[in-house]
Design brief:
Keywords: Signal. By secondary structure, the chain is of the alpha+beta class. It has helices spanning about 5-25, 175-180, 225-240, and strands at about 25-30, 40-45, 50, 60-70, 85-90, 95, 105-110, 120-125, 130-135, 140-145, 150-155, 160, 170-175, 185-190, 195-200, 220-225. The two termini are about 25 Å apart. Mean pLDDT is about 80; it is low at about 10-20, about 205-215 and about 225-230. The structure holds 2-acetamido-2-deoxy-beta-D-glucopyranose (4 copies).
Length: about 240
């Protein structure tokens, strides 16, 4: 490749990334109109807490990224059920307002650009309870634990093993919407998975074609052990015959 051609490609890459970076910055806006068109009543780009005024009884949320909304009591920090919102500056979603709560807590998950190669697990559903995260090169846990929710960002794939001695794990692929945007969150809010080891990628599976689908979902494309092995073998046979 000539150096002129290489610098041309670099330039194109820089133009694309600088255009895209603005679009993927996380935010949450809460409106008092059903179309999310007026000026937002509450707005944040990082986790914050607002004093919640008496009299605000209807709210609609528009977010970029992955956020939670909690209505909490002033005194002891007791909160109502956590509400989760995700999107790419698209939906205008109804917020079930808990009046007379005193505090409105807005929590942002993950990095501002929605691409970080990190997976975070929570003991409770809806990203509640104690949490831990894993980054490359992964982690082996002496004591496996049951997690109830998790999220990860970007075009990343993680392998989850129930026990660190297991040979095979379950592959968690980024969702299709993340695949088409190049950024965003893949998550589950209500599950039960035993985590004994976490590895970045699913290297033993990478030779298998992912298959193209246009269904947009926020749940990961998971792949159970036997299915993966069958795909892997079928893929290998296909490659050895036709390549
Ligand atoms: C809705 O929010 C706007 C902007 O903050 C405010 O001017 C307006 O009075 C609010 N309307 C209602 C019905 O609360
Ligand atoms: C979890 O989030 C969903 C959707 O935001 C909400 O309806 C549900 O009440 C929450 N559950 C708990 C246990 O917080
Ligand atoms: C956003 O709206 C689309 C189309 O109505 C829907 O399929 C999708 O589930 C919504 N996303 C969220 C996070 O609510
Ligand atoms: C986890 O354990 C496996 C098997 O013993 C080992 O190959 C791997 O390097 C370990 N990973 C980390 C991050 O310690």
């Amino acid at each position: 490749m000539s150096s002129n051609y290489a610098s041309f490609l670099t330039l194109i890459f820089l133009i694309i990334t600088s255009t895209v970076t603005g679009q993927r910055s996380q935010f949450i806006n809460l409106y008092n109109s059903t179309q999310c068109l007026t000026a937002p009543v509450f707005s944040a780009t990082a986790s914050t807490t607002y004093t919640f005024p008496v009299g605000v009884s209807t709210l609609y949320a528009q977010v970029n990224g992955l956020w939670s909304v909690d209505f909490c009591r002033n005194d002891n920090g007791e909160c109502h059920d956590r509400l989760i919102y995700s999107g790419q500056h698209d939906n205008c979603s109804f917020v079930a307002v808990m009046e007379y709560c005193g505090l409105l807590k807005l929590t942002r998950f993950g990095d501002v650009n929605q691409i970080e190669r990190t997976i975070r697990f929570f003991a409770g559903p809806n990203f509640t309870g104690s949490s831990f995260f894993v980054e490359p090169p992964g982690k082996n846990f002496t004591q496996p634990s049951i997690i109830r929710s998790y999220y990860f960002s970007g075009l990343n794939i993680w392998e989850l093993k129930a026990d660190k001695t297991d040979v095979w794990g379950t592959c968690r692929f980024y969702s299709d919407i993340v695949g088409s945007n190049g950024y965003g969150f893949t998550y589950q809010t209500n599950t039960a998975i035993q985590i004994g080891a976490v590895l970045p990628g699913c290297d033993w599976l990478i030779t298998t074609p992912r298959g193209s689908t246009t269904i947009h979902s926020t749940t990961p494309n998971s792949c159970e052990n036997m299915k993966c092995i069958i795909f892997f073998i079928a893929g290998s046979i296909f490659l050895s015959i036709f390549m």
